[in-house]
């Protein structure tokens, strides 16, 4: 497997990443999602790059044919929003996203400004479906 990616697993602890989040609400929301992902996945999180917290690993192939390793699901407590990785790809999980609450999406990402603005049960179902669907 090629390993020319800049974003790789590090020895940084998830606690260090969360501790560096200045906004208390974002830090609290990130901890709640981290706990949810840990519970659903049954694995311990690993920090990838400076601030992405991932669970599990899976291979993927880029358009140029290179194979890489990435985390199955994850999060990053960004300044603008809590970024959740691996929960939607190419229009998947639209049924859950329609019921989730206030959020936006990107390629494979769900962005949440405040955890209180989303339905916790739907978020759990979304994380469960993403974890089960990603396989290892």
Characterization of the model:
The chain is of the alpha+beta class. It has a single domain, classed as Aspartate Aminotransferase, domain 1, CATH 3.90.1150. The chain has four helices and eight strands; from the N terminus they run H-H-E-E-E-E-E-E-H-E-E-H. A six-stranded antiparallel sheet has the order 1-2-5-6-8-7.
List the helices and strands and how they pair.
Blueprint: H1 14-19, H2 24-41, E1 46-48, E2 52-55, E3 58-61, E4 67-70, E5 73-77, E6 82-85, H3 94-100, E7 104-106, E8 109-112, H4 120-134
Antiparallel strand pairs: 1-2, 2-5, 3-4, 5-6, 6-8, 7-8
Protein name: YdhG-like domain-containing protein
Domain YdhG-like: 26-130
Organism: Janibacter indicus
Descriptive key words:
136 residues; Aspartate Aminotransferase, domain 1; single chain; two-stranded antiparallel sheet; alpha+beta; 4 helices; 6-stranded antiparallel β-sheet
């Amino acid at each position: 497997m090629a390993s020319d990616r800049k974003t790789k697993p590090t020895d940084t602890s998830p606690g260090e990443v969360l501790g560096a989040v200045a906004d208390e609400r974002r830090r609290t929301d990130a901890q709640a999602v981290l706990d949810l992902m840990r519970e659903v996945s049954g694995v311990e999180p690993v920090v990838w790059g400076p601030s992405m917290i991932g669970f599990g690993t899976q291979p993927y192939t880029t358009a140029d044919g290179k194979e890489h390793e990435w985390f199955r699901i994850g999060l990053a407590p960004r300044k603008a929003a809590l970024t959740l990785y691996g929960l939607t790809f190419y229009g998947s999980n639209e049924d859950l996203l329609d019921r989730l609450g206030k959020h936006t999406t990107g390629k494979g990402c769900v962005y949440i400004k405040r955890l209180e603005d989303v339905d916790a049960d739907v978020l759990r179902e979304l994380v469960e479906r993403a974890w089960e669907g990603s396989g290892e």
